[in-house]
Amino acid sequence: QQLMEVRRFVLQSVQAPAMACSVDAEEVQMQNRELLKTVKELREENASLLQSQEELEQAVEEVQAEARVYVTHLLSDIENLRMQLSKLHLRCNNAEEQRDVQKQLFLKL
Known about the structure:
The chain is an all-alpha fold. It has one helix and no strands.
């Protein structure tokens, strides 16, 4: 009888921690499943963000290429305008000289 009670006592004293470990293990497994789910969601979000980043980088490259074309055209236009301005300046100087010559000629007459 005492042997049976000792066995029952030992069995009860072993069962309680075993049950607690079982509950802890289930809780850890549940947390692990939640973490794996979170990791999966974060990987999907990361993939989506990477795709968005690539699309934005491509758009930026296209805008930069267009800007380079516009800048090249603007620089060419600026050079053409400088040449035109230089020609107009020469014409203006020539016209002033001609006017002065005509004025002096008119005064002589």
